[in-house]
Amino acid sequence: xxxxxxxxxxxxxxxxxxxxxxxxxxxxxxxxxxxxxxxxxxxxxxxxxxxxxxxxxxxxxxxxxxxxxxxxxxxxxxxxxxxxxxxxxxxxxxxxxxxxxxxxxxxxxxxxxxxxxxxxxxxxxxxxxxxxxxxxxxxxxxxxxxxxxxxxxxxxxxxxxxxxxxxxxxxxxxxxxxxxxxxxxxxxxxxxxxxxxxxxxxxxxxxxxxxxxxxxxxxxxxxxxxxxxxxxxxxxxxxxxxxxxxxxxxxxxxxxxxxxxxxxxxxxxxxxxxxxxxxxxxxxxxxxxxxxxxxxxxxxxxxxxxxxxxxxxxxxxxxxxxxxxxxxxxxxxxxxxxxxxxxxxxxxxxxxxxxxxxxxxxxxxxxxxxxxxxxx
Amino acid sequence: xxxxxxxxxxxxxxxxxxxxxxxxxxxxxxxxxxxxxxxxxxxxxxxxxxxxxxxxxxxxxxxxxxxxxxxxxxxxxxxxxxxxxxxxxxxxxxxxxxxxxxxxxxxxxxxxxxxxxxxxxxxxxxxxxxxxxxxxxxxxxxxxxxxxxxxxxxxxxxxxxxxxxxxxxxxxxxxxxxxxxxxxxxxxxxxxxxxxxxxxxxxxxxxxxxxxxxxxxxxxxxxxxxxxxxxxxxxxxxxxxxxxxxxxxxxxxxxxxxxxxxxxxxxxxxxxxxxxxxxxxxxxxxxxxxxxxxxxxxxxxxxxxxxxxxxxxxxxxxxxxxxxxxxxxxxxxxxxxxxxxxxxxxxxxxxxxxxxxxxxxxxxxxxxxxxxxxxx
Lengths: 376, 376
Known about the structure:
The structure is a homodimer.
Chain A: H1 7-15, E1 22-23, H2 35-41, H3 44-53, H4 56-70, E2 83-86, H5 89-99, E3 105-110, H6 114-122, E4 126-131, H7 132-136, E5 145-151, H8 163-176, E6 179-183, H9 197-203, E7 207-213, E8 226-230, H10 238-245, H11 251-287, E9 293-294, E10 303-307, H12 315-324, E11 327-328, E12 330-331, E13 346-350, H13 355-375
Parallel strand pairs in A: 1-11, 3-4, 3-5, 5-6, 6-7
Antiparallel strand pairs in A: 2-8, 7-8, 9-10, 10-13, 12-13
Helix pairs in contact in A: 2-11, 3-11, 4-11, 5-6, 5-10, 11-13, 12-13
């Protein structure tokens, strides 16, 4: 791993692997479609026709309503014009980064997916880490921090910001004139993260921005939507930044999202969760005999971190060795964007993959770790 | 029109019109699907299955090959890793803007779609205009200009950069260490723009970046790809900027592009061109009786500019009046990003719309102009 590589670069490498390697890098859903999802995909040609006949705002509002209701966000401002549909949650994040005043100081959860920190840094913002421990201690940052960015649940740890903690942050932010920014891209997978964060933030009178994502939930080959919602109080030039990035998301994809959201409340959530948890159990079973364990046993998101003991090979070594065995995983140093060395003892595996892919990768990891341990 | 509105903001307003107004603003294809295109769209569910079974690089390369061959770009570096698939040409442009060194001076064609200039400005670049007249005179800018951006064919004028002119620019750029950047988003519509620009640029030994787009060609409801290709000589951190923006385009959309590209060389081009030219004739027939004419009668792209005489109402007035009549068009001042007043005497209508939409809009425009002329 070179110092310059970011996590997405490693994910691109895995996707570009021409030798049939196993790709357990990115958090995108790559499970097989369920029978119910197959039936929905079969209706895409009809969605094309409907996209021509119905006005775009009607299609968009119906998708927002269905998706946000399916993940418990009943107070989201559907139909107000304050929810923008983007091609992806990454693009939504970049629009937020552009709308924030350049040079401002913002606190960002640590560790978290490096792309979130990178997008803010590239747009000229100063970042300070807010550790997960500080979040759990409600040790909120004061000025000059003008915005606090939480990933909820967090990636890669799966840590959920509890409702009381979010309320505490919202009240703190109101007192200090800060904006609360939530990246809830993995929320759809975790019931505990589905309390109505819009209600909590509005009740406190907070200035907030929330990013939601359909891309982590459904294996729709990048046909997805990132939502960018913001509060009535928000005065940032978000619409202007949006108009620089896109005209509109696809009305076909919006209809697909609506249909998949209806399936999600009709058993789809449980079906996907069962597949992910079976995969998590498979990883656990493969690594426990060699003395490794899941770093976040309570996590319910579709990735798993494995902790590596201090006296054995680190994740950089394990990552390279597994590449030679044709298995792509992510070393975790880049998630610790403010202190990469803190992540050296973790690797991350994606669980939103077919069972056999996860089983083979976990078995390979156990073999690689055992052999490396014998040589270092 | 406020000073702050950009063209996309006006396009978003048109798309959000809940009162059933006619939208002739954006250049996205909104024609009805042809029978051949309907048959392709019907195969999208199969493309989902294929996306699971085939490796992504194979799907992507096949799409690049089919699309670039369909628009005459046989020398594009397909399979080299130097063509990146983005969600849109806008995102491709933003990736280029980010990869250029902040503070650099670049020359950008004038007039052109304001979003192109805006994206570069927002990323901290200094812009100087290169007028269409200067391009036609081969009056290329010297230092400190480090990159020259051409829109080929240009939007909104339809002006094609002739092959000899591109060769002259490429040779000039090599002498001065400049990068040639081409936004060829509308190229697919215009045979004259389909000479092999990759061959011309490579023959001169130029450092180049080219953006291609499928979004202007096919009415696929924003299921589209923007391609970002670059030369072997290019040393800008383009891959890094790409990895900050996305992991990968959709393999379903890439397969859709491949199929539509095959149809394009099999009569699809002529079918679409005939619809657009019929619409252009309809606009011409509606406005000539009141003394107006097409500003770019030779243009073959799917938008048309109408020139407004100096002694009558300007485009700002006409734009507002037409809004009240439920017809959205674009006033052209923002296209003249360095001298907005130069665009006051033009409005732009999109022609990639169903015939009846264009006919009603053109008739309304003629009425509005006649009545406004009588009162000013």
